[in-house]
């Protein structure tokens, strides 16, 4: 039977050469926190500090009332550094790290036996967990006879079977192919929520936050830049960095009659008024951003629009698919010139990253991205659909 869920709290500082991680995060009992950000933002370092694999320069880690790490606190009690194997914390990473000489059943049973369970009951429980993760009938196979996705399922079963007080997931889907990743992601979500396990999942993919987590924390260069409920942060990011991370364009601006003055010029707004921002409880007059679908059901179009008076400071959001790119200046409103920084994959097409402060994103069909004029460093013209421009008062 799963033990009652326990919360985790960490306030740590890690100094490594020119990089410093300085983060304070907590997760309530039974909830899942996603920590997202680009490579080298400190995500895995934070997880390894909680797991006891990295010793912080200063800070504390607690699970419930139990202090697992205490370092460098002047005038406080003596330092504490509980060994990883004594923390009651499970860690699941990209690599399943299965014992090659043991069967799938024995791999899952290993953690249970290490916790003191006798061999027979441990194997019985291991078989139950293999069934839960969809591997009924393969318990006698060794890892070499299993596919990569099956090995990862064994690792998930092993991690959850041990019933850790806290489960840490470090990019657990990064090594999987496009077919296996969605299955494993959904499996993790079902098992973590079904057992009420307190968990922290580290990822560079915001989809992991959408599917797995209750709350999301965004790291950049070792610093926490945003934290909140997934629906709030992903549908209405407060910083340009987070907006780019979740695939939404964000600009600062001032309302100017029927439009808004921004760094790229005056952008017209459909209908001559501010479209309702998803975080403001209303519905935009145009098609909503993809991330807005995470929010609560919207009010009828045009109602509940935030009050952004003429001259008032605001933030402007529009989806990348609302940006068209041209080799020459197009007709119509909301056109501006920009420089191509690079092209990258996007769901169903190609994403063009436009240089600037902040960067802007445009999503194109593959056939639209083949022109020589779209090379990195090239100058292009962009146009934003006025119906897709959503405003909200500046914080």
TrEMBL record:
Molecular function GO terms recorded: ATP binding; ATP hydrolysis activity
UniProt enzyme class: hydrolase
Domain ABC transporter: 3-246
Keyword Methyltransferase: no
UniProt keyword terms in alphabetical order: ATP-binding, Hydrolase, Nucleotide-binding, Transport
EC number: 3.6.3.20
Residue ranges of the region described as Disordered: 274-309
Compositionally biased residues, Low complexity: 285-309
Family annotation (Pfam families): ABC_tran (PF00005), TOBE (PF03459)
PROSITE patterns found in the cross-reference section: ABC_TRANSPORTER_1, ABC_TRANSPORTER_2
Protein name as catalogued: sn-glycerol-3-phosphate import ATP-binding protein UgpC
């Amino acid at each position: 039977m799963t033990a009652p869920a326990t919360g985790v709290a960490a306030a740590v500082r890690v100094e490594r050469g020119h990089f410093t991680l300085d983060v304070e995060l907590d997760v309530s009992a039974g909830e899942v926190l996603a920590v997202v950000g680009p490579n080298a933002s400190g995500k895995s370092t934070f997880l390894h500090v909680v797991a006891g694999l990295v010793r912080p320069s200063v800070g504390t880690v607690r699970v419930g009332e139990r202090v697992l790490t205490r370092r460098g606190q002047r005038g406080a009690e003596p330092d504490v550094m509980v060994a990883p194997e004594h923390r009651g914390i499970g860690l699941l990473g990209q690599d399943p790290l299965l014992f090659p000489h043991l069967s799938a059943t024995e791999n899952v049973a290993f953690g249970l036996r290490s916790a003191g369970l006798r061999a027979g009951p441990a194997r019985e429980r291991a078989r139950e967990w293999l069934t839960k993760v969809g591997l009924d009938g393969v318990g006698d196979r060794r890892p070499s006879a299993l596919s990569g996705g099956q090995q990862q399922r064994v690792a998930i079963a092993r991690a959850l079977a041990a019933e850790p007080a806290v489960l840490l997931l470090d990019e657990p889907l990064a090594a999987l192919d496009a077919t296996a990743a969605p299955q494993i992601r959904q499996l993790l979500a079902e098992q973590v929520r079904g057992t009420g396990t307190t968990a922290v999942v580290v990822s560079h993919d915001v989809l992991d936050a959408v599917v797995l987590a209750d709350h999301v924390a965004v790291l950049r260069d070792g610093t926490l830049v945003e934290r909140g409920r997934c629906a709030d942060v992903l549908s209405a990011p407060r910083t340009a960095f987070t907006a780019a991370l979740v695939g939404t364009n964000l600009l600062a601006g001032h309302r100017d009659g029927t439009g808004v003055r921004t760094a790229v010029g005056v952008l017209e707004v459909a209908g001559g008024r501010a479209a309702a921002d998803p975080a403001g409880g209303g519905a935009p007059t145009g098609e909503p951003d993809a991330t807005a679908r995470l929010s609560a059901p919207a009010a009828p179009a045009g109602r509940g629009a935030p009050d952004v008076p003429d001259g008032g400071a605001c933030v402007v959001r529009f989806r990348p698919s609302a940006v068209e790119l041209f080799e020459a200046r197009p007709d119509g409103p909301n056109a501006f010139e920009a420089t191509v920084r690079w092209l990258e994959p996007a769901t169903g097409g190609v994403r063009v990253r436009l240089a600037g402060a902040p960067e802007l994103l445009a999503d194109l069909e593959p056939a639209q991205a083949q022109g020589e004029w779209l090379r990195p460093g090239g100058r292009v013209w962009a146009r934003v659909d006025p119906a897709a421009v959503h405003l909200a008062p500046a914080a």
